[in-house]
Protein 1
Amino acid sequence: MSIPKSKTRLDDYRERILTGNIIVVLLRLGTPQMVAQLANIAYSVMNSLWLSLFSENAIAVPRQVFPVQMFYSAAINALNVAGTSLVSQYIGARMYGEVRRESSRILTASVVIGACISAAFFVTRPLVFTYVVSTPPEIYGYTMDYTALTSLNILLASSSMALTTVLVSAGETRLPSTISMVSVAVNSLLDPVFILGLGPFPRMGPAGSALTDTIGLSISNLLLLHVFRRRLPELMPRFARDFSPAWVKLVIRIGGPVALMSCLNSLAFMTQLRLVNAFGVNVATAYAIGFLVLDIADAALWGLSGAIAVIVGQCIGAGERRRAKEGAFKCALFVSSLVALGAGALYVVKPAIVSFFSQNPEVVSESLEFLDTILLGLPFFAFFMSGFSAARGAGRTFAATAINIGRLWLVRVGLSYVLAFPLNWGSQGVWTGIMLSNVVGASLMAIWLSTDWAKPVIANNLGGG
């Protein structure tokens, strides 16, 4: 009896993760995602450039929307965190029959929840950006146009994330990363056309940027489904109905803290954004430019940290708890070291990067003050997020979530407010609070990683009947 090719591939993925040098495994899994992340960052830079040519302050629009979109997408993020834990641990345990069932459940739940979130975001966005975020009037109209299309993008991203979660959790990172880069290439080509109105197309500004995202996400979904059909047909997800009570409880147990964290995170970011907006549109623009530069330094983090969850999950599923714990700490130190190198390099060239996006002296000055402060804490942020990724792989998200909520609300928001207003530090108080929140988060995460957290969450009785 022949062994299905897809099952052989799953065995190969599994053995490489469980037996190879942990840093080599991290780089093998994470490098394709890191390259894709670099492509996304390059796109963000060019996207910001086109927006600045449309209107300098239009750069601030995506940063206004980001925390609000995070709030509405909390349930989707939580579902995919649970999916990563379950799929990776089932593969580590060689329970391949459960992987197909999990992928179908994750996709179905993601699409249904995504459709509800998309509608809610569209209906409520005028209230949120008027009364919660308090978007500056100079860019409010652009924000409304941008978010009209973002509503649809939330639904498209929900299905794309679910499909990517299954593939990456299985150990297949190269093809999803390639698809991501194809999507970015399409966006890059279309951005100037729709933002600036080249040829017969209207001049759409930020709404044009959102439209290219719609096109790119549609292409991503089609290509991801094609990968399943050609490479892993036995894991091809279908729309499912067998959502057993045991499965729902487990997903809530794993993803519930993450959903709460995502909501509270986004509220913290919205509160912080409101503090920033209180200083006017120039500071809001500097805030957006500063985070664009930070994204460049964070490329290694967002590319490699996702691989930590897969490594930890598969090791725990296979009973290799010691390898999971040691690997998590080594990977966190490695990723934070890479981010430190990136932050150091950007510290030297930051004036040239900032002046690339703005010639306004006030915006340039605020952007440089932001980076002088935030870059110091960036390696700590990388360590914290790497540790959180390990918690995702283990399915042990409660403590990591508590740490994140504390660092955001007590330090990033609370301390920022005290420094900015009662102590009259102005915007520098906000920047200092952000930096210190990363230092506190990393310190507490290091303590948690030293505890006995590497335990499996999967069982043999999660099926639907």
Protein 2
Amino acid sequence: MNYARLILAAAFALSSAALQAEEGWSRFRGNSASGLAKQPIPTKWSDKENLAWRTDLPGKGSSSPVINRDKVFLTTYSGYGQAVESPGDRAQLRLHVVCLSVTDGSILWDREFDAADEEQAVTKRVADHGYASPTPCVDNESVFASFGPSGVVALTHDGELKWRTSVGTGTAGFGAAASPIEFEDMVIMNASIEDGSVYALDKKTGAIRWRTADIDRAWTTPTIIDLPNGNKELILNQKGSILGLDPATGKQLWSCDGIQDYVVPCVVAKGDTLFCSGGRSNKTFAVKAGGRGDVTATHLIWDVSRGANVTSPLLDDGYLYWSHDKAIALCLRASDGEEMFRERMPTRSRVYASIVGDGKHLFLTTRDAGVLVLAASPEYTEIAVNRLGNPEERFNATPAIAGNQLFLRSDAALYCVKKEKTD
């Protein structure tokens, strides 16, 4: 027996697993909430080209997939509200956390939950997104999923329920949207819509570690940043102000006047500089983090009447990019907010998926007309428009990228795009 060869093979397997874990996609818009990946992925694909697999899902949903090592996790709903015209029996609504294989897309397990009585009745607006919109987050032991008024659940990677905790039962508009994020031994959940608060839950038990109230009309997923001094801040953009909190305690450290409207997009950051967008009239603020008290007069760098109401931006090499919810590809210079380009995307539908990129290319997902691929450049350069599935499928979810694979989720299926091997 060649022991040296066995040792080398084992070392290679371990290093490959470590690389795959490092390049996972652990939360909404990736490990750092940037929407950026480390490896290039294909720029052209179809149902017959560069498609590794497609898997039908047990129900609809708008949540993004998250990836840890060899597993993909996402949420769906079934039993009610699949069609507005014939919604079915409200008592039959079921919520799902689903785990699939990264390798071949096979469903490894599907855990169902009853919905809370407070869940909204289906309307055309609610059905646009459904009852499984928040994206889960995942660490090396557990996956954490939010279902708005039906609470936050934690499961093992094998699908065993660890806990379920309510963070309020309020509803509004199109339903829940904010996604949980992890921080050290806690899961942080913006429950502005459900309870007017942001919560930190113990990862092991679901117990409330801290709760900060007076979070106003924020559907946004929080962002944690690293400051130059080594400290961390939890950034939450809400109606009227941008907040910096201590993620360990929930204590408010600073505030800056912000968007005078409800807020949906994530904050993106470069070092201690924050880019905060939102509002129906579309505004973006650049703010320096790390202050104390009201920092509007001292830490606001610039603000412009550009941005997006729903979709989150991507920051790459000094430029901010959006797949604007009004179907516009938008680019601003990050140093001063100057507009670089503003071009119509190939759809007349609203866009709900946020932009992602691989460092060289930008991927802008439309609901009904495929994925627009652009060069990551302040000069508008269209590379491709790629379609998958049938014309009835709707792509509301932000894509995920892990390694050299792009994961696209429609309301019917999950797709894995990967460059085909060539001889």
Protein 3
Amino acid sequence: MPSVHHVSTANGDVLLLIGTMKGLFVLRSNRARKHWETGGPYSVGSPVYAAAFDQRNGRRRLWWAQQSFRWGTILNSSDDFGKTSTEPETYSIKFPAESGVALKNIWQINLNAPDQPDTIFCGVEPAALFVSRDAGSSWSLVEGLFNHPHRPKWVPGGGGLCLHTIVPDPVDHKRMTVAISTAGAYRTDDGGATWQARNQGIRAEFLPEKYPEFGQCVHKIVQHPAQPQRLFLQNHWGLYRSDDGGDSWKDIANGVPSDFGFCMVAHPHDPDTVYIVPIESDEYRCTPQGKLRVYRTRNAGASWEPLTRGLPQKNALETILRDSLAADTLDPAGIYFGTRSGKVYGSNDEGKSWQLILEGLPPVVCVKAAVVGGSGKPTARAAKKTARKVRPKPKAVKKPAGRKVARARAK
């Protein structure tokens, strides 16, 4: 067994939680984000598809999902950055016995429920949503989604029938959007009691009917809290934006080498800026032309630019999976991603330049970033930047027509 190392942290440090096919690694750096210390591996030998850092209500708690082919999937937590961890005596997340369904994997741990510091959501396989209202001590199945009439017709994607993306609305506490492969996007407006498919305009390239009500293989959805009605979506073929909360979607694949891909992350301070890493195709799931390029839009998808400085542009046949791209909340923001070849790259200047942080890891399937002691909210400087970005433009004031008439008469 490999030796396990631990990191020590201070307020203002940046954490990267790296979930791999052989355990969880915890990386730490100061605000400069130039040199990184590595902790772990934790849950040695087990796939870790989901991780999160909870510092609400004074906590400093790591969460990660440990998948065992022998014992099943459980949640682990640590309040001392991995030095000690707590496993539930019984599987804390499990389907009701009468459902006849067994938990296969936990794909997402979401701590973003607005003003609910003890609420945690988990997206799982087979596709379902679980919620805890007591900081993870107990869990319940969101039955409104589990009993949806579409469910019998949902078909597993290449990674299984998984609910992998959870987007709580930052303003309307009863609204939430989720993404399921391969069922598409679904939204609730009543706290989870009922759910509606929200896939209008998203194509399903692999189906005879290209624009069905549901059945799309949505890979990722992101949102900026300053503009909750606007959503960005990376599909199994297709890049989209919605300006009405998901009611309809517009294609924004303008100038990218491929609109196939998995990962997507929103800039923490700029609602017009989103990052992706395109993949060649569903048959050849590597970076196009062997060039490792992160693409960024700064105008909400009107155009995209490649970010390459510090990234290999030859023989870089890499794959970046759906949850392997993350951003911290510092200013300038840090952007990070991990590859299936076990490399972790980072940028401390919003993507202008990149460095190889770590290599030689098992395949990376999850990357999460957090600032220790941070609220998850932007700094004062960044908040002002965001406010300027979303401030509505003043309406043009028309001069009274009477002045023109008076001048004309005077002539």
Protein 4
Amino acid sequence: MKQFAKKIIAAAMSLALVGAASACSSKGASSGTGSAKSDDAKKVTIGVIQYATHPSLDDCYTGFQEGLKESGYEEGKNVTIDFQNAQADNSKSDLMAQTMVSKKYNLLMAIATPSAMSAYGAAKNANIPVVFTAVSDPVGAQLVSSLQKPGSNCTGSSDVLPLDKQVKMIRAFLPKAKKIGVLYTTSEPNSISQLKTLKEVAPKYNFDVVDIGITNSSQVASGAATLVAKGVDCVNNFTDNNVVNNLSTLLQATDKAKIPVFGSEVEQVKNGCLAADSIDYIALGKETGKMAAKILKGEAKASDTPVYVVSEGKPVYNKSVLAKFGLTLPSDYSGAESVG
């Protein structure tokens, strides 16, 4: 009897142990499921609209991806990026933004002023944050109330061209020049802002500014021809998306007339401009990616995040173009980087 009682007690203890183990296993499974859900919650979708295809904007996107990755967001793991290129078409840019908002993406990122305006217009009443880059005058484009306090669900990074240094460079390369020609798109707020600044800076270096406004890509050739006819000594590019996207058309007219073109960044110099005091657009994009990551993590709000502004460039020049125009590198720019 005692032996039977011992067997009953042993069996009961064994069942108790199994029950306890099962409970522990159940808790472990529950914890694991919760962790998986937590990981899923971290997965986000970002809609990216790039206004046009040209190297400086491509560099912005490259930098943006690097900034996201450094901040813990890697495509294919915890972020999906829907990249769209508007091909310099405002109506396409608007439609892309509207579609992304309708799909309730977690964040929209826009590269260049026209696409930033599209993204903001579509998302401002949808509680979807917008982050932009390569926008020279976000206040003028009515994307933010101020650089320090955007106020709306929109912030980003701004490429303020170092125009004083640029004009100083032009004077060093062309000591006898009198007229700087500018071709710009009248619908781009960034170009209008840059033209205003250039006209303020130019007299300091004894230059007159001859500007020709155009409305679309089909007018780049005629606009360039008009600048040549007006007898400009050189042309200075802004970050005008329409003009930069058709740089070869501009260069075709100016090269034929032996008029050098100064770019607004390094990629334009690589592609045939003489020189530039160039902003690093990969670095600009990277800062934008880090900014977006903080917003996605809930560590910051777009409305309270100051616009990141870069206004310092580095001098670069194209050795082949320099030789083509029979010019010599000014002594003050002996340390400039040769990129062509």
